[in-house]
Design a protein that fits this description.
The chain has 208 residues and is mainly α. The chain has 2 domains: 3-126, no CATH class; 134-194, Alpha-Beta Plaits (2-Layer Sandwich), CATH 3.30.70. Helix content is 50%, strand content 5%. It has 10 helices and 2 strands; from the N terminus they run H-H-H-H-H-H-H-E-H-H-H-E. A two-stranded antiparallel sheet has the order 1-2. The radius of gyration is 18 Å and the shape is globular. The protein starts with a helix and ends in a 14-residue tail after the last strand.
Length: 208
């Protein structure tokens, strides 16, 4: 494999498989260029997740994208991938498409991170590997006064105080380690910590 295919495989292996085993979804919170643009929009305080099957859209998106790539490589024999100006062009076109969908969803659902929660295919492998992440948000139950400031401002709608009051680290695979919760906690009850506890227990705030 060469060209853009090789770069994509290398990037996914490092940033989406190996990295999350150590640092969870730190990629989503600090280095995703789609989020960088979406966070400029005016809906930084989401009112909760949409109930139902909206979350399955990202799995459909991921499966479709993977199927297209496999067909191009093994059926169409497109193993070289795009190179040079063609690779740059497709990279730009792909990102512009992400931005367009993300902006439309943000305004439609009044949520900057709607794309991340319902459509982003990258979150699919990240949710699997980040379950075993060593780095997670932890808290001190004795300090927490259950004011829910962390929950109200969490861009991913994680019910952080529920984990803390149950003497657990934040085990949700939706946590992007953006550290907004740590910043806004009036009791200084939250911090990043290294440890081993298998995540996947999803406690998320839903829209009423």
């Amino acid at each position: 494999l060469t060209g853009v295919v090789q770069m994509a495989v290398t990037h996914y292996f490092i940033a989406k498989i190996i990295g999350p085993l150590l640092f969870g979804r730190l990629w989503c919170g600090w280095t995703c260029w789609t989020v960088m643009v979406l966070d400029l929009l005016p809906f930084s305080r989401p009112s909760g997740r949409l109930p139902g099957r909206w979350g399955w859209l990202r799995y459909l998106h991921f499966a479709t994208s993977l199927a297209v790539v496999l067909l191009l490589i093994f059926v169409a024999d497109f193993k070289e991938g795009a190179t040079g100006k063609t690779a740059v062009t497709w990279f730009i076109v792909g990102n512009l498409a992400y931005y367009a969908v993300g902006i439309v969803l943000a305004y439609a659902l009044k949520d900057n991170r709607a794309f991340c929660k319902y459509v982003c295919p990258v979150s699919v492998p990240l949710k699997i590997t980040s379950r075993f992440s060593l780095l997670k948000v932890g808290g001190e139950a004795a300090k927490c006064n259950d004011c829910d400031a962390c929950e109200k401002l969490c861009p991913m709608d994680v019910r952080i105080s529920d984990y803390v009051l149950n003497h657990q680290r934040v085990l949700s695979t939706e946590c992007s380690l953006c550290q907004t919760c740590i910043t806004v906690c009036p009791q200084d009850a939250l911090k990043l910590s290294f440890g081993f506890d298998v995540g996947g227990k999803e406690l998320l705030r839903e829209r009423g």
